[in-house]
Design brief:
This protein is 37% helix and 14% strand. It is α/β, with parallel strands linked by helices. The strands form two sheets. It has a three-stranded parallel β-sheet, sandwiched between helices. A two-stranded antiparallel sheet has the order 4-5. The radius of gyration is 19 Å and the shape is elongated. 22% of the residues are buried.
């Protein structure tokens, strides 16, 4: 039995450094939803929340049944958008406000996961000055990633001091 067609607004774009990736994934999601028979509105999100609310509520098919969050990074994965949609009373895909905020903050997520008994790799926080000085509290190999950035491409993998020289603080 085929699912009942839904009116879906796909939120994409945003203002984070991952805007372009979000536009690509949002268009792919919209295309897949259309192939499945759903009515789809593609919404390019920016920081104007009043305009966003108007775009959502004035979609070609009226108020959507659900919003698909295809935003990446800050503003889309950190609980910000989720809180806005909850205030508007609109259902959306993905995690809620608290789970999104915790998951986006890597050190906090590690603390929560460890407290729940999940084994986590050794790690620590370092300042920009420590990165510039190449001073790290753990032995090689390790991964360097900004605590509030989502993309895997923002990671730096260092196996030795030689590879660490390529790091741009």
């Amino acid at each position: 039995m085929a699912p009942t067609p839904q009116k879906v607004a796909v939120l994409m774009g945003g203002w984070s450094s991952e805007r372009e990736v979000s536009l690509v994934s949002g268009k792919a999601v919209a295309g897949a939803l259309r192939e499945l028979g759903h009515e789809v509105a593609e919404i390019d999100v920016n920081k104007d929340l009043l305009a966003l609310a108007n775009q959502i509520l004035s979609a070609p098919f009226g108020k959507p049944d659900i919003l698909f969050n295809a935003l990446h990074g800050r503003g889309g994965e950190d609980g910000t958008l989720q809180g806005f949609l909850e205030i508007l009373g609109l259902p959306y895909t993905h995690s809620g406000v608290l789970a999104s905020a915790i998951a986006m903050d890597k050190p906090l997520m590690k603390t929560v996961a460890s407290a729940a008994g999940v084994r986590c790799a050794q790690g620590g926080l370092v300042s920009k000055q420590e990165v510039a000085a190449r001073s790290f509290p753990i032995p090689y190999p390790f991964v360097i990633k900004q605590p509030m950035k989502a993309p895997a491409w923002a990671c730096f993998w260092s196996r030795t001091k030689v590879t660490l020289r390529r790091l741009k603080p």
